[in-house]
């Protein structure tokens, strides 16, 4: 059995050959579909697809007349009557807010025509279609992200509709409607340090920016939840005693270890990984000339953003997910705020910039690395503009990095992100 996980509209359709001459069919697109089989391996196929526009008019002839007037090249127009029991309704969100989800008095038609559906859709301002089945009270909303967000992908979301006075409140996401493959999902978080001691955000663009710590949680149905913490030792010392940790003596070794661990992941996620973690990984690999790993990275423009991925894995950034789909009006959508709101749980209450002192201060020693007193560590390292209450031992920062990834894992599962974004 194959499970569809990604639908990508290819940027240009292949011409149709008619009478020995290629002709362009603007209503035909080619969609590349990525599947997972039952063993988790990816399979890709490309299929042609004839686009259409859905309308719910009382008189479909008037719609066709309007189309032919404004789009004289769209002939011939043909249509298919779908019926009254299953509808595709335009303006789904506005109808939802007005409690007018169903339109039983109007029939539904699928219109096919030889012109660009985007132009017709832009004319009618109908980018969203929903079919509504009263038999099982299930709503499927289809959004063409190619038009709305200038990307090349589609997503689907399913709802169960309950009998509630407020129709918005009556919608509940329906995660069990389709079977899901046994995904291997990885969530990770980076900690970086400006090794030159400068007071700046180390995003990887400077040669002295270094990735010193990476936490990783992986899970699937077969093996459950597992975690790792990979870090570079700040000094010549035995590693602190902590389960599932791997200590390295160089950033190069650390990055090799991390990329080996994510090989079997089909999905990578994190918080603001499109804005920070993935670009930082990319630039550090570039600085270190680790081309054997770097060649597996690629980037694509999504709207005004550049999204980086590794080995064509599905990358889901929960920061953007909550910015787009959350009902909360949160300041900046910081991980700590979202986790507090959704999970009633927060990050380890120390400042990440305190980790810089552990890697740049000359008095970091093996004894200090294993010290349990925050006050003593603060007295010796004297972190810049950080009170003792916002500082931590080296082990505290190991827990800090792990906790960030754990919170994202909890949010990912609580929100059922894959069920929400894939069919």
TrEMBL record:
Domain of life of the source: Eukaryota
GO BP annotation list: DNA-templated DNA replication
InterPro entries membership: DNA-dir_DNA_pol_B_exonuc (IPR006133), DNA_pol_type-B (IPR050240), RNaseH-like_sf (IPR012337), RNaseH_sf (IPR036397)
GO MF term (any one): nucleic acid binding
SUPFAM superfamilies: Ribonuclease H-like
Sequence ranges assigned to domain DNA-directed DNA polymerase family B exonuclease in this UniProt record: 168-325
UniProt xrefs under PANTHER family: DNA POLYMERASE CATALYTIC SUBUNIT (PTHR10322), DNA POLYMERASE DELTA CATALYTIC SUBUNIT (PTHR10322:SF23)
Protein name (record): DNA polymerase delta catalytic subunit
Source organism of the structure: Nephila pilipes (Giant wood spider)
This protein's encoding gene: AVEN_261814_1
């Amino acid at each position: 059995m194959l499970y569809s996980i990604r639908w990508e509209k290819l940027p240009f359709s292949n011409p149709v050959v008619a009478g020995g001459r290629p002709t362009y069919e603007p209503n035909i697109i080619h969609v590349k579909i990525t599947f997972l089989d039952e063993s988790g391996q990816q399979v890709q196929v490309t299929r042609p697809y004839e686009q259409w526009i859905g309308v719910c008019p009382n008189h479909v002839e008037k719609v066709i007349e309007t189309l032919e007037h404004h789009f004289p090249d769209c002939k011939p127009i043909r249509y298919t009557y779908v019926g009254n029991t299953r509808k595709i309704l335009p303006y789904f969100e506005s109808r939802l807010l007005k409690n007018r989800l169903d339109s039983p008095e109007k029939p539904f038609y699928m219109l096919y025509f030889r012109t660009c559906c985007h132009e017709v859709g832009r004319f009618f301002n109908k980018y969203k279609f929903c079919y509504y089945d009263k038999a099982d009270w299930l709503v499927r909303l289809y959004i063409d992200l190619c038009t709305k967000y200038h990307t090349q992908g589609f997503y689907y979301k399913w709802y169960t509709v309950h009998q509630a006075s407020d129709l918005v409140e009556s919608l509940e996401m329906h995660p069990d409607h389709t079977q899901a493959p046994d995904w291997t999902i990885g969530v990770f978080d980076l900690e970086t340090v400006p090794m030159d001691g400068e007071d700046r955000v180390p995003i990887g663009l400077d040669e002295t920016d270094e990735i010193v710590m990476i936490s990783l949680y992986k899970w699937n149905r077969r093996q459950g939840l597992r975690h790792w913490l990979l870090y570079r030792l700040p000094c010549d010392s035995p590693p602190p005693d902590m389960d599932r940790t791997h200590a390295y003596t160089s950033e190069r070794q650390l990055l090799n270890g991390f990329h080996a661990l994510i090989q079997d992941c089909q999905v990578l996620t994190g918080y603001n990984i499109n804005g920070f973690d993935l670009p930082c990984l990319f630039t550090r690999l570039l600085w270190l000339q680790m081309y054997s790993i770097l060649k597996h990275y690629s980037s694509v423009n999504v709207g005004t953003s550049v999204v980086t991925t590794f080995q064509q894995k599905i990358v889901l950034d929960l920061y953007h997910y909550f910015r787009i789909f959350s009902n909360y009006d949160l300041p900046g959508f910081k991980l700590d705020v979202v986790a507090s709101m959704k999970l009633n749980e927060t990050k380890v209450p120390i400042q990440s910039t305190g980790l810089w002192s552990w890697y740049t201060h000359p008095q970091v020693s093996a004894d200090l690395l294993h010290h349990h007193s925050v006050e003593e560590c603060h007295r010796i390292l004297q972190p810049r503009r950080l009170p003792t209450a916002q500082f931590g031992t080296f082990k505290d920062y190991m827990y800090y990095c792990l906790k960030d990834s754990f919170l994202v894992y909890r949010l990912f599962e609580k929100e059922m992100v894959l069920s929400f974004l894939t069919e």
